[in-house]
């Protein structure tokens, strides 16, 4: 008696639909986590800017880093394809760059003295269309949240794609050493802070939390990129995930703590301590010979030399620009504040 052949495609279709539904659900969870963190901290940033204890000043930066770790773990659990990781990461990066241009007007407004523009100038007193006034006075936090979400998603997706290419412990060591070189270059030369908003390198620093008062700098884009790559590599290399997660979080926390002012301040130690935490967390499972570690160190040194050469050449050919004069709108705000203060006195 012949049994009817089972159609394998009948079971493959529901499985594919279930995988897509799981991925969408995990994306919603990741978006919600980022929005929740933004909402919780935004109302307390002014208070946090006045904190002087280092243990408190490091909390916003560490909150964003832990958020990146959680988002990476949530999204990597769905095992998205490489094409989706690459396309989604590039799309999120492009969206973040576009929102930088839209949010520049709001950032200029936020850079003014606290309460000056909002208290002195009502929305109807600002020249321009109603759409411009809406962006200035209402959509600023929304644009900042969108930029924040886009930056984190781009780093997590691209970092996960990078982690898929790490197939051995020596390759992971090479990625970590190159991350150290890039972090030293990024912080020693203050690359994102010394360029204009029209330069793509400004995206190397997350747009939130802002550098207010005594708060430390927000994490770099490359920090979350390497974090996602490390977690994805540790997953398929069979490392103990809890040990790796605890190692990267504790190491990055120590580096962030050492990077705070006042003296001594070593802002370039974040990825050094991060790498130390990774090595401690996965040391029992790490299989790397001294020769492989030497090769990884050589690759990182070459990368550091290239970055230094490019930066030096750029400083020679195009010196750092002088501070730009205040825009006409800010001058108008300052003049109005001065005039009203004189009248009230």
Report on the architecture of this protein.
The protein has helices spanning 8-42, 45-48, 54-57, 59-76, 82-111, 116-120, 130-137, 140-164, 169-188, 221-237, 241-258, 270-282, 290-317, 328-344. The protein contains 14 helices and no strands. The termini are far apart. The protein has one domain. The protein is globular, with a radius of gyration of 23 Å. Helix 1 packs antiparallel against helix 4 (59-76) and helix 9 packs antiparallel against helix 10. With 345 residues, it is mainly alpha-helical. Helix content is 70%, strand content 0%.
Give me the secondary-structure topology.
Elements: H1 8-42, H2 45-48, H3 54-57, H4 59-76, H5 82-111, H6 116-120, H7 130-137, H8 140-164, H9 169-188, H10 221-237, H11 241-258, H12 270-282, H13 290-317, H14 328-344
Helix pairs in contact: 1-4, 4-8, 4-10, 4-11, 5-8, 8-10, 9-10, 9-12, 9-13, 10-11, 11-12
Count of helices?
14
- Count of domains: 1
Mean pLDDT: 78
Q: Which segments are poorly predicted (pLDDT under 50) over 5 or more consecutive residues?
A: 114-138, 323-337
* Share of helical residues: over 70%
- Morphology: globular
Structural class: mainly alpha
The count of DSSP E runs of length 2 or more, i.e. the number of strands, is 0
Beta-strand percentage range: under 5%
User: Biggest sheet: strands, sense, closure?
Assistant: none
End-to-end distance, in Å?
Answer: 104 Å
Radius of gyration: 23 Å
Q: What is the N-to-C order of secondary-structure elements (H for helix, E for strand)?
A: HHHHHHHHHHHHHH
């Amino acid at each position: 008696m012949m049994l009817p052949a089972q159609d394998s495609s009948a079971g493959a279709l529901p499985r594919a639909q279930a995988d897509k539904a799981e991925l969408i659900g995990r994306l919603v969870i990741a978006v919600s986590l980022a929005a929740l963190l933004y909402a919780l901290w935004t109302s307390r940033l002014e208070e946090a800017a006045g904190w002087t204890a280092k243990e408190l000043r490091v909390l916003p930066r560490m909150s964003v880093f832990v958020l990146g770790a959680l988002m990476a773990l949530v999204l990597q659990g769905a095992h998205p394809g490489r094409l989706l990781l690459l396309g989604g990461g590039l799309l999120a990066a492009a969206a973040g760059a576009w929102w930088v241009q839209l949010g520049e007007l709001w950032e200029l407004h936020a850079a003014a003295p606290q309460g000056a523009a909002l208290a002195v100038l009502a929305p109807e007193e600002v020249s321009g269309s109603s759409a411009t006034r809406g962006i200035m006075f209402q959509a600023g936090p929304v644009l900042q949240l969108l930029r924040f979400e886009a930056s984190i998603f781009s780093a997590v997706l691209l970092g996960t794609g990078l982690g898929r290419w790490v197939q051995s412990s020596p390759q992971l060591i090479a990625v970590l050493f190159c991350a150290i070189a890039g972090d030293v270059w990024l912080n020693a030369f203050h690359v994102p802070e010394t360029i204009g908003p029209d330069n793509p390198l400004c995206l190397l620093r997350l747009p939130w939390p802002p550098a207010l008062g005594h708060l430390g700098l927000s994490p770099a884009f490359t920090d979350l990129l390497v974090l996602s790559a490390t977690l994805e590599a540790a997953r398929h290399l069979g490392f103990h995930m809890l040990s790796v997660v605890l190692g990267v979080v504790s190491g990055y926390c120590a580096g962030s703590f050492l990077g705070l002012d006042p003296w001594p301040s070593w802002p370039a130690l974040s990825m050094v301590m991060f790498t130390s935490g990774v090595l401690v967390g996965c040391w029992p499972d790490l299989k790397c010979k001294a020769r492989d570690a030497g090769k990884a160190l050589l690759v990182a040194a070459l990368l550091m030399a290239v970055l230094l050469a490019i930066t030096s050449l750029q400083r020679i050919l195009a010196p750092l620009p002088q501070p730009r004069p205040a825009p006409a709108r800010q001058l108008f705000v300052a003049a109005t504040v001065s005039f009203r203060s004189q009248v009230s006195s």
